Amino acid sequence: MFRNAFQHRFVTVFSSAGSKPLAIWDVHTKNGHSRRVTDEDIRSLAFELIGVNVATTYMVAPCAPCPSLSIKLPFLVMLVKNMKKFFCFEVQILDDRQSLRRLRFSNYQSGTRVDNFSSCMPLSLTCNWNHVQLNLAEFIRRAYGTNYVETVRLQIHANVRIKRIYFCDQLYTNDETPAELRLFPPVRPNRMVQLKAQQKPAAIPHEPIETVRPPTPVDAADISNMLENELAPAQCAVGTDG
């Protein structure tokens, strides 16, 4: 599927926020459901895969009739939520001996079992969302003594919520990872806070500035009353002399 694609740094095989998240996936559900939901913790879309039996509810890539993903990048990264139920996933890998090896990870298994063509390993998940990073080349080298060539198939079983699944050429820090591939995107600063920080403080004069206070306005009625009060005693005095 990705054999003729340019595989540089990151190759995304599933994104719950895309317009067609299941474009390269086949989904099988029995006594369960598969749907896209809005997760309250990350406030983003996530794909939920829930079933009574993990073996009968799963999603697999690539979808038929494509035979292989043909992804050369050796690191598998999954952003998944622990639903506190049984959960497992499988990765089918082609090594340099042209043998298909299947790696199976589950949270209900405590020990590791290695067979000729398959390996089962325990998977420990913390509460809520998890950032799972797997070095597939290292697993193949330790289990079978061979070299990783490409990932052929990826199968996710119930019960889980998935935000994104991608492959990369090496492990990157959170700052080096593109924003769309992170579990929590970077917080955008508040625009009002930015504007307040850009505002310059008001200039304070070095010497006080003298200002003239305007006279208090006087009402015309008050002026007439004042004149009457001043003229009234004088009129009384003139009348007594006559």
From TrEMBL:
Note the coiled coil stretches, chain numbering.
none
Q: Which InterPro entries match?
A: CFA20/CFAP20DC (IPR040441), CFA20_dom (IPR007714)
A Gene Ontology biological process annotation? regulation of cilium beat frequency involved in ciliary motility
Q: Which domain of life is it from?
A: Eukaryota
Domain CFA20 positions: 1-184
GO CC annotations on file: ciliary basal body; motile cilium
PANTHER family, per the entry: ORF PROTEIN
- This chain belongs to the protein called AGAP006134-PA
Gene name, Swiss-Prot/TrEMBL: 1276806
